[in-house]
């Protein structure tokens, strides 16, 4: 049963259409990330779910009951939602314990403190109950903000860029911890982020948006492996791009043909190749006929993998225009071939996508 549901929600700010017929639903215990570039409407969707933004069109349902539609717009405090924002929004004059207890003011006084201490313990902040927010680091404040939101046991948790104020190392740790407490809580969670890596780390399902509309939704692995358009394919990390023309249902690359995925012959296409789809092997000296080779421009160790920048000089037949192709390949582990070395390239076609080029008919 879906806990949170948005049905055909549209929303405008004057001339700007922030949301255009957005529908989504989230089950209990499910973590869904709203992902997309700046201005695509993520925050507006979250604010409408929370009741912080007045609904204009569509419906919001909680546990199957409308909380906002043409007739009603239930205020945020009457919806069973927990909110966490980027700036934590803790009350500076209250202690950590008082901040968490504040969210429990509808419960009997004697139960409040026990519940607040329990949830502070869950986020590892039990020892800081008497501290004031200004005495805490950003990561600790973020933990308290999560505890405060979770304390009343909301059916829905709404988080807006909750980790963007933290530095990189701490961010990874807090993401990990937050994922655990959210999963433990069983709440239906909607989290806004513009960071694809964060969405892939956190989400059971990702809803990728552009200009107020959903472009593609599904488990992150599905969006990564089977993007439905160029925007989705290139949103998750950098990607190699080649241009080509469809002939006989296939598009040529310097490493053999790939299936043109049903596009008509003559269509100008862009061929997108994930860096990890290129496999490299030493060729030993000169290029051999029938082998696909490339020259190393630079190789860099990125930690757990290496990035090899490659050049293919003047590839393609003359009627394709010929292109000087620069590619980058991501190789697991340490692989640092010297500059100018010739390498043999193999292409993993399952990580190669063909879409019509911009303006192609
Ligand atoms: P970001 O990641 O930058 O926060 P977002 O995807 O969350 O972006 P929204 O904040 O929902 O996007 O904004 C969607 C559109 O609506 C943008 O064009 C934005 O400028 C506009 N907008 C949002 N809030 C208001 C407002 N209160 N008044 C006017 N325009 C607004």
From TrEMBL:
Residue ranges annotated for the ABC transporter domain, each copy included: 4-236
GO molecular function terms listed in the Swiss-Prot or TrEMBL record: ABC-type ferric iron transporter activity; ATP binding; ATP hydrolysis activity
GO biological process: quaternary ammonium group transport
Keywords: ATP-binding, Cell membrane, Ion transport, Iron, Iron transport, Membrane, Nucleotide-binding, Transport
CDD domains documented for this protein: ABC_Carb_Solutes_like
Domain of life: Bacteria
Record bears the keyword Magnesium: no
Entry keyword annotation includes Transport: yes
InterPro entries associated with the record: AAA+_ATPase, ABC_SmlMolc_Importer, ABC_transporter-like_ATP-bd, ABC_transporter-like_CS, ABC_transpr_FbpC, Mo/tungstate-bd_C_term_dom, NA-bd_OB-fold, P-loop_NTPase
Protein name, UniProt field: ABC transporter ATP-binding protein
Organism name: Ferruginivarius sediminum
């Amino acid at each position: 049963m879906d806990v949170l549901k948005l049905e055909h929600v549209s929303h405008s700010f004057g001339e700007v259409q922030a949301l255009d017929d957005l529908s989504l639903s989230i089950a209990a215990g499910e973590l869904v990330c709203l992902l997309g570039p700046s201005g695509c409407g993520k925050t507006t969707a979250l604010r409408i779910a929370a009741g912080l933004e007045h609904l204009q069109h569509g419906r919001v349902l909680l546990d199957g009951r409308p909380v906002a539609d043409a007739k009603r717009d239930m205020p945020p405090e009457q919806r069973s939602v927990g909110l966490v924002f980027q700036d934590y929004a803790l009350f500076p004059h209250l202690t950590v314990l008082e901040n968490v207890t504040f969210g429990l003011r509808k419960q009997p006084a004697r139960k409040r403190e026990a519940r607040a201490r329990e949830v502070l313990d869950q986020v590892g902040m039990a020892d800081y109950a008497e501290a004031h927010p200004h005495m805490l680091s950003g990561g600790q404040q973020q933990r308290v903000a999560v505890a405060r939101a979770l304390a009343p046991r909301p059916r829905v948790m709404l988080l807006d860029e909750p980790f963007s104020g933290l530095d990189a190392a701490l961010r990874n740790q807090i993401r990990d911890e937050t994922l655990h407490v959210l999963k433990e809580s069983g709440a239906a969670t909607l989290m806004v982020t513009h960071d694809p890596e964060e969405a892939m780390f956190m989400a059971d399902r990702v809803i990728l948006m552009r200009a107020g509309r959903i472009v593609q939704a599904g488990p992150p692995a599905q969006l990564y492996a089977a993007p439905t358009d160029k925007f989705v394919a290139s949103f998750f990390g950098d990607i190699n791009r080649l241009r080509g023309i469809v002939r006989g249902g296939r598009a040529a690359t310097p490493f053999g043909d790939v299936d043109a995925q049903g596009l008509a012959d003559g269509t100008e296409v862009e061929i997108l190749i994930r860096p990890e789809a290129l496999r490299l092997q030493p060729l030993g000296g000169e290029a051999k006929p029938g082998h696909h080779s490339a020259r190393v421009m630079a190789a860099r160790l990125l930690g757990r993998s290496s990035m090899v920048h490659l050049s293919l000089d003047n590839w393609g037949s003359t009627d394709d225009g010929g292109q000087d192709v620069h590619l980058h390949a991501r190789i697991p582990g340490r692989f640092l071939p010297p500059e100018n070395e010739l390498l043999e390239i193999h292409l993993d076609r399952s990580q190669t996508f063909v879409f019509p080029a911009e303006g192609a008919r």
